[in-house]
Amino acid sequence: MMDKRFRQGILTMNRWLCVVLILFTSLVSLVISSCSSIDCPVENTVSVQYEIRDKAGNALPITDSLSVVTTRADGQNIVLDITTLNNGQKVLLNRLIDKSSFSLPISYSHPEDVLFFCFKDSVKTLVDTVWIKKDDIPHFESVDCSAAFFHELTSVRHTHNAIDSLVLINTSVTYDVQTVHFYLYPKTGN
User: Fold this and answer.
1) pLDDT tens-digit readout, 140-158
2) Of 63, 79, 101, 169, whose CB neighbour count within 10 A is largest?
3) Rounded distance, CA 52 to CA 103, Å?
4) What is the tens place of the pLDDT at every residue in 10-62?
5) Does the reported pTM lie above 0.85?
6) Nearest residue to 184 via CA among 64, 85, 55
7) How far is CA 76 from the centre of its chain?
8) 143 within 8 A of 162, measured Cβ to Cβ
């Protein structure tokens, strides 16, 4: 009698063990399959691409040193020391030379970016202020990815000390680093 009860207990325990094992396997499978298969972009910096051009429209490597400085995040203008440009945390581009293209990051918290283009040669330094108005567009890929903003450039204006013209050619700013947004035409003889 004891032997029969013992065998029934073992069979019941084996059934429960099978049920628990099946439930555990199902749970593990469910957890593994619930992981996202979306790859977040590695290059997730949204930046504006500039090309420096001559009057004929050809790429023009810059011969003067070009630095680009921006305003503080709180909206107050920084004090520009155009002889040394020591304020490193707000320098977006530092002493570019012999290049015909460059990229600059764009803000996602202001409707207008204000940039100071500082052209410096051995004799003088010329500073142009550039105002870029834009609309910020939230971009969502996955809950696994960090938040991002794309932008639609709406207008640009600038002073004319060293920059002859700054032409907006593509208004959509995304992760695409191949798309040129502005042609920058420097004044000749500067």
Assistant:
1) 777 777 778 889 999 999 9
2) 101
3) 11
4) 666 667 666 666 777 777 665 555 555 566 766 677 889 999 999 998 999 98
5) no
6) 55
7) 22
8) no
